[in-house]
Amino acid sequence: MRARLLVGILAVSTSILLAQTPEKMEGLDASTVETVISAGLATAQVGNYSKVQGLEEWVSDYAEFSSHLVQTYRARYDFRLEGNVLWVTMRDLQGLGPDGWGQSLIPAKGAEQKLILQMVGYLNAARRTLPPSQLALVNATPPMAPGAPGRDPLRPGQPASPNQQPRLPLERASAAGTSQTAPMAAVEPRDTNASQQSDKVKSMIFDKNGTHVCSEGLCAVQKDGKWGFVDYQGNLVLDFKYTSAVYAAPIFLHGTCLIQLPHEAGQNYHYGFIDKKGNPLFGNRKFAMSGPFDDVVARVTLDSDSHLYLLDLKGNLIVANDFSRDLTAKQFHDGLIRWQDSGPKAESLWGFRNSKDQWAIPPIYIAADDFNEGIAWVAKGADIINAKWGAIDTSGKEVVPFIYGFNHKPFSDGMAAVSCNNPRGWGYINTTGDLVIPCGHGDSSPFIHGHATFNTVPFPELIDKQGNVFAGFTEKKAPNDRRPRGNSLRSDGLYTYNGQFTVGLLDADWNELIPADHFLSIGLFPADEDPDGLAWASEKQGNKRFGFINRHGQFVLVQQESRF
Question: Which CATH entry fits the domain spanning 6-139: 3.50.50, 3.30.310, 3.30.70, 1.20.140?
């Protein structure tokens, strides 16, 4: 079985060791390291490993992973012991092509870093199973060698904080009622003790207005009514001089950010776009009205005429008088926008138009939903009440037969939830319309990285794509260390779970990312799943700080002073 990881971040890698940051574990020696490595690889279901002759170094068999944007990859884990420190990296990247495996010319930075952190989690879990006689060495802090890199209190492998519990592997319940262990697919949670982060956190004076948001490597922050942008390391990269063109924080989409341009008293407002360096885009063109880019185009108007235009990312303008002048109405998805034909019928029919204001899929449906993952739900019938729903791809080809009612959900991770009458309840279909998880369940969430939830009574259940229910969860974190159960799925693909007047986050596998013992609120992380992405958060009483945190619950940038 392959260790798989879906990513969408590509960057430059080296030819031997991939472009990555090595992770370390401390407190191991030659007598324990191979036991821990063997157990970690077994959990990851990677296979065997071999020791490099004459060195304290071990190299695993290939582990496969994939980028949904490009191709399938494989690489080897590399473990190197230096004193009592075990360094974990990956090497020998290959890509799967028509002729089989070969050296990949396309890098996969981000994927291997996640796999390294995931492996460190497996190794930590394996280390906890060592006999007590060996744990004495594991729990001791080894002396630092002269000239060695400084001890990083935020790295995996450090002694856990009192609030940090070890995670357990997923247990998938079988039909016979037994359980079998499945690999975890998340980063080992890091210590969120604020005292250990004080020298790592940056501070800045900015307003606290509750609409801070991060996207594409930048976070919007506001001071004295003007917006600026900080990067994911907390550095101010665009100064506080911008006015948002929307009723919330400005945001970068497809490398562009819509802003309101400076104007003098008595003049009309104008709008424009900037890039991530603050440079004006599209020849510094000014628009009388504009919406942000959604998928492939933005809808704009000019002072010179009354037309509505579609603006593409190259700066081309296409007249689009058939489109609504509501610049935030219906959006493009997968290059298409659902549109209702203005025909003579009382109920005009729906189709899909492209970014050139042309019908890509003719208006032949009584109703339609937006495209998601290249598939859209559409309905046929004499009226909307008695209509039957099926699904089409972006070419208009039917991929799901028209047999379902109006209770259905968009495709996500290759699956869509559908509601049935016999048996009554929810199930899931795949992209070819096969009912792979029978109906009869409570309300359901979208699939994210192979897992979804049924809202069963009394608690929700985590399932895989075969409908297997995972065991080993409790309503909240319990003394027996059973893992917390997710409450609700957020739009960034993470689950919330509640502590005592606090909130924590779980990943798609319900692995604990941020314990529910520190934050009163945690905003959304970037939707692109950038592992370095930040979210706005506020601490509970005590420290009561506000600022941006990473996916391990560590503050990167805190508000130095509130202007409220």
Answer: 3.30.310
